[in-house]
Write a structure and sequence with these properties.
The longest helix has 29 residues, at 59-87. The protein is 55% helix and 0% strand. By secondary structure, the chain is an all-alpha fold. 3% of the residues are buried. Residues 92-96 and 100-104 have low confidence and may be disordered.
C-alpha cells in the first residue's frame, strides 16, 4: 500500500491477498519483488523477507527506510527527466532512447 500511494501505476493491489499464514505472506513479498520493486531497482532478499514474516524486531524498519530512500530517489529522477523533456523544443532530438541498441 505504501508503494501504491507513491507510485500508483506500479502496484495492482488485487494481486495481493490478505495473509495470516507465512506462505501467503511470502508469496505476497515475492510478488512485490518480482512485479514492483524491480521496476525501480529495489530487491528484498529472502532472508530479510523471512525476518519480516517472523516479525523479527527492527527488520521492517530497515526495509521501510530503504524503500523510502529508493522511492524518493526514483521520484526525483523521474521529475528531473520530465523537466528536461519539458525544456526541449518540439521535434528536438534529446539523445538515444533508454536501452537503445547500437551495433558495433
Amino acid at each position: 500500500e505504501i508503494v501504491a500511494h507513491f507510485l500508483p501505476s506500479y502496484v495492482e493491489l488485487h494481486n495481493y491477498t490478505p495473509a495470516n499464514n507465512s506462505q501467503q505472506k511470502r508469496t505476497n513479498w515475492e510478488t512485490l519483488n518480482r512485479k514492483v520493486f524491480k521496476r525501480f531497482d529495489f530487491n528484498i532478499p529472502s532472508n530479510i523477507v523471512n525476518g519480516i514474516i517472523l516479525c523479527k524486531p527492527g527488520v521492517i524498519e530497515i526495509v521501510l527506510y530503504n524503500l523510502r530512500v529508493k522511492i524518493l530517489n526514483y521520484k526525483k529522477k523521474e521529475d528531473e527527466e520530465s523537466e528536461s523533456d519539458a525544456k526541449s523544443e518540439p521535434g528536438q532530438w534529446n539523445g538515444a532512447p533508454p536501452n537503445a541498441y547500437y551495433p558495433n
